[in-house]
Amino acid sequence: MNSISYNVSDGVAFIKMNRPDVLNSFNRDMALAMQKALDDAANDQQVRAVLITGEGRAFSAGQDLAEVTAENGPDIRSIVKEHYNPIILRIRSIDMPVVAAVNGVAAGAGANIALACDITVAARSASFIQAFSKIGLIPDSGGTFTLPRLIGFGKASALMMLGDKVKAEDAEKMGMIYKVEDDEKLLETATQIAKTLAQMPTKGLAYTKEALNNSATNDLQKQLDLEEKLQKQAGSTYDYNEGVNAFLEKRKPVFKGE
Ligand code: T3D
Fold first, then answer.
1. Which residues belong to CATH 1.10.12 in the chain?
2. Cα 83 from chain centroid?
3. Which of 23, 115, 168, 184 could form a disulfide with 122 if both were Cys (CB 3.0 to 4.6 A apart)?
4. At a CB cut-off of 8 Å and minimum separation 6, what does 76 contact?
5. Which residue spans of the chain are classified as CATH 3.90.226.10?
């Protein structure tokens, strides 16, 4: 059984973590397969949005703890360096929106992968756990970067130190995720969001993502300079031209992602 299933439909690459018996926890095979799936999406001209979800009752329980304790299992440093860091960097740098459909519990690296996505939608029964502290680790997979920026330093500190289980509805209220959806409608809603994004001006969305990525560390002057540069690039795309013409001609625009 492949640990990641991948298929493309209507401009969306659907990436599903597929180790339901262990709550889609990451072993080396699944981490490398996730990296490859993100590369495949990035290199496919037909793909203009990505959707990540999990098979079964969990999104992902983070690191497969049986793997790290196994004889000849990977060591912690190589796990972070070779498994999770490349996944997070790919999600943040891929030139298109990435949607997470969090279908159940998202713990440890699983939570921080979901939170690194551009738009995170969760099933009402889902939850988020910064589980690391409970086993003596620190939050990885970009968690110490992403979570304080989403919900503020104080709340992030508490969740990371206490390892509280945060229900999807509370995650939405505190701004950790975009929205909660009823369990049975989660995939439909997330797919609709991804398909809508795949019809939008892909380059403009990619430049928006680049600006947001940099806003975390730039000062105001640098960010204004970056906006100026990216707006110039957006203004020279086919889709900008199409968007303006369609507005003036009072018709629906047909964007090509160019
Ligand atoms: O070296 C390093 O580790 C560095 C990398 C760190 C990155 C990380 O992600 S560290 C954090 C690792 N994750 C965790 O600590 C979470 C562990 N899991 C849990 O706390 C719970 O399973 C959940 C709260 C996520 C869900 O609880 P529950 O009661 O709904 O399910 P369960 O019964 O605990 O789990 C169901 C099965 O999945 C069970 O197997 P079994 O008994 O049916 O054969 C359980 O062992 C397995 N499972 C769940 N999480 C993991 C796992 N197996 C391996 N690794 C897991 N992380």
1. 202-248
2. 15
3. 168
4. 68, 137
5. 4-198
> 37-71 pLDDT, tens per residue?
999 999 999 999 999 999 999 999 999 999 999 98
Residues 6+ apart with CB under 8 A from 247: 253
Please say whether the structural domain 4-198 has been given the CATH code 3.90.226.10: yes
Question: What CA–CA distance (Å, rounded) separates 141 from 86?
Answer: 9
How far is Cα 238 from Cα 255, in angstroms, rounded to an integer? 8
* Residue among 3, 57, 60, 65 to mutate when testing ligand 1 (max atoms within 8 A of CB): 65
Instruction: State the CATH class of domain 202-248.
Output: mainly alpha
CA of 20 to the centre of ligand 1 (A): 11
User: Is the distance from the beta carbon of residue 166 to the nearest atom of ligand 1 less than 6 Å?
Assistant: no
pLDDT computed for residue 74 by the predictor: 86
The rounded Å distance from CA 21 to ligand 1 centre is 10
Helices (H) and strands (E) in the chain, counts: 12, 10
What pLDDT sits at residue 145?
Answer: 98
Neighbours of 212 (CB within 10 A): 11
Please state, as a whole number, how many other Cβ atoms lie within 10 Å of the Cβ of residue 113: 29
Put simply, whether the predicted model's pTM sits higher than 0.85 gets the answer yes
Beta partners for 12? 9, 49
Contact call for residues 61 and 96 (beta carbons, < 8 A): no
Where the chain has pLDDT below 70, the residues are none
The candidate with the shortest Cα–Cα distance to 37, out of 5, 11, 62, is 5
Rounded to 5 degrees, φ, ψ at 63 are -60, 135
The pick from 17, 21, 22 for probing ligand 1's pocket by mutation, whose C-beta has the most ligand atoms within 8 angstroms, reads 22
